[in-house]
Amino acid sequence: xxxxxxxxxxxxxxxxxxxGAGARGVVFGLSGGVDSAVVGAxxxxxxxxxxxxxxxxxxxxxxxxxxxxxVARALSIPYIMVELDDAYQLLARQxxxxxxxxxxxxxxxxxxxxxxxxxxxxxxxxxxxxGYLVLGCSNRSELTTGYFTKYGDGGVDLMPIGGLVKHQVWxxxxxLGVPDSVIAKxxxxxxxxxxxxxxxxxxxxxxxxxxxxTGEASEEVSRKIEKMHRVSEHKRHLPPIxxx
Length: 244
Hints:
- The chain has 244 residues and is of the alpha/beta class.
- It is 56% helix and 7% strand.
- The chain has one domain (3-236): Rossmann fold (3-Layer(aba) Sandwich).
- It has a four-stranded parallel beta sheet with strand order 3-2-1-4, with helices on both faces.
- It has twelve helices and four strands, in the order αβαβαβαααβαααααα.
């Protein structure tokens, strides 16, 4: 992959989309991960100072917060921090007062998905206030498998890196000057302690990216990917409208 060419094309694309929408700039969630770092770097190239990264701790890892600040300093990204712990805990308590799930794993996942939806609400508050567009940080690998929260991190206006698989994002990150420690950290949605993408998906990004780019993977891995793609199809489309 020609990272120089890709960075230039995505910068031009982003600049064109923002101008075409009549927006003043862009806002995005600064998670401390490599995807959001790359999106932030592209945003600054396209929009200059009209960029806002928002770090949104929500019972999150302290390291993620520190990495978000590291990225902001390294790439000169304007940012603020909005703590969502209190809002999250208040909502979770009220929900559970009406419906207490018996299955512990289902309860954990259901509760955890409040977090990205609170972050989406936060991003759109600042986007509307400033006349900005909301940038998503999902890559092709995540979008294909549905590894994102519907109307959470999937609730955005533009997805600059949605056409790049994870390894291409890593390559682009190196070109854009993302700190090595952020590139090297294990990818995680950060919704609960010790969560990692690869553990949760059941295969590595190497296997997933190889399948997406070449169609090659073991029978077990290809079956898992195809199933994840099939059951998450609804996430990649606007809601169906009833016919009459």
